[in-house]
Amino acid sequence: MVDTPQPIQKENNLHKLAKATVVFRNKPTLLLNLDHVMPMSVMLVAKELHGKNIPDLDVILHTPGGHIESAYKIVKLLRKHAKKINVIVPSFAKSAGTLICLSGETLMLSTISELGPLDVQIAEHQEGDIDTYKSALNGYKALEQIQNHAVENLDVATQLILQRTGNRMRLQDIIKLAIDFSGNTSGCLYNQIHPKTIAESARYLDIGEQYGVRILERYMGWDKIKATKVIHHLVYDYPSHEFIIDKEELSKMGFAVQDIPSELEIPLETSAALLQGQDIKFFDIINPGSSKVKLENKNTKKNEKDSKKAK
């Protein structure tokens, strides 16, 4: 018995599915299955799209996120080589993947598909170990929670002192005591946050915001006010990196969202969820993958039958 390497089998299955998508949709398709968006991803996309000028391109995207600058470069490549882009998200496209989604005139999602906050991932390197990544949103939200805690402490202390002293103390003295109380109880929390970490998180979040606004203005024709409002919401208004942004919420923000066709929904969800690694491949209508046979969709076959009947 011969064992087939599992990654190769999965890759072949996904390529077959991408080819089926080409036939069903009758559009060229770019498969972007990325376990991490990185500089190498940009080079592979550039290789697949080199010399191509595509009127209408489907992009099957599956990624947990990664390098924000690489995601922005991928957007530039997509917009250079395709006049119209339809981004198909079978399972998830988070963080840097969400940034790539902004470049699509149409977003196609299933019931379980999800995007995420536009929070840039910060690399953390430990000697002798591989790099890990943390969300820039974590530091920002930690500071926000401590600030809320301090304000709540101030309000509680002020009300408590007022209740216990009645009108026997001046308001300014009460507020001073409340501020001292809030400072003593919240100060230890502030001491746990390094200013450099907060500044770094704020800077990276601003990077994501700047790229997002630029994409919507430059490539999607949004006006600056609307683009800034929507991107600010995507960057700052969610509690965590894992938070799910679904098709209903994207529609409310003003994005053109469609359902993945039912014939493709389950196969795409299953295949994308199983795969990991860098799998970038362009499939043309006439030449999907290495096959030299023209694949025809249902409409083409129907037209041929109607033509024969007419003769």
TrEMBL record:
Source superkingdom: Bacteria
GO cellular component: membrane
Pfam families, alphabetized: SDH_protease
Entries under PANTHER family matching the protein: PERIPLASMIC SERINE PROTEASE
Name of the protein in its database record: Peptidase S49 domain-containing protein
